[in-house]
Amino acid sequence: MAAYGKAVQQYCGVETISLACPTDMRKFLSVDDQKQLRIQNMTGRYNMQIEAPLSESMADTAWHVHRAMNEQKEQYAFLESFRSMIASLANGDSVAKLQQAVQEHYHVRGISYTNLAVIDAEKLNFGNAVPVSCLMSGGFREMPEYQIAVSTFRKRINLVANIIGTPQEIWLARAVMNQMKLFLLTI
Questions:
Q1: What pTM, to 2 d.p., does this model score?
Q2: Least CB-packed of 31, 118, 146, 149 within 10 Å?
Q3: DSSP, res 155
Q4: SS3 168
């Protein structure tokens, strides 16, 4: 996440990194419920603003992101929107009104990222076929709205993006991913 933030920061020339951080809410389920197969989005989100001079090293930026994430997790910041919605319900708002508010305020950032998975090679089973590589990606998006998907397989980080755009727009998406790769290689 820090490499993504730093890469976008370099292109924008700003001193602050703004990250929307996903949180897997399944870890808050009971142990028995965690064992059940679920096909649903159980991702919460909190937002961070990190002061990071452009000249700051990738290792320092990663440390600041890590520290800010831990603070947000300790405060259960991803529950803040739920708290306000429950308070609205308690004050008489209807579920329909809350759904409308979510639609009005929920947005996908122009360029975003997602951590799709740590793919366990031992659990990825295709019978006698043994996969040597595995890439996962998000959906197709038109430029400038695209999402970089990060996954790991056999201790290898994969960066993938599905982009619909002009050759120049696709070049920009690749440039951001290449910058991320360069930052990751420095730590």
A1: 0.75
A2: 31
A3: T
A4: helix
Residue 183 CB-density burial (10 A; 0-12 exposed, 13-18 middle, 19+ buried) = buried
Give the span between the Cα atoms of 43 and 132, in whole angstroms.
Answer: 29
Q: Which of 106, 24, 26 lies closest to 69 in space, CA to CA? A: 24
d(Cα 91, Cα 83) in Å, to the nearest integer?
A: 12
Rounded CA-CA distance 10/124 in Å is 37
- Classify residue 90 by its DSSP letter: H
SS3 content of the chain, % helix, strand, coil (to 5): 45, 25, 30
What is the mean pLDDT for each group of 10 consecutive residues in the chain (187 residues)? Answer: 89 88 79 80 79 93 93 84 81 85 67 76 87 83 80 89 87 90 89
Round to whole Å and give the CA distance between 151 and 134: 9
Specify the pLDDT at position 78.
80
Name residue, tokens 């709205």.
145
Q: Which residue pairs, CB below 8 angstroms and at least 24 apart, start in 136-143?
A: 136/160, 137/161, 137/162, 138/114, 138/162, 140/164, 143/169, 143/170, 143/172, 143/173
- Sheet with 146-153, side-by-side order of all strands: 111-119, 146-153, 156-160
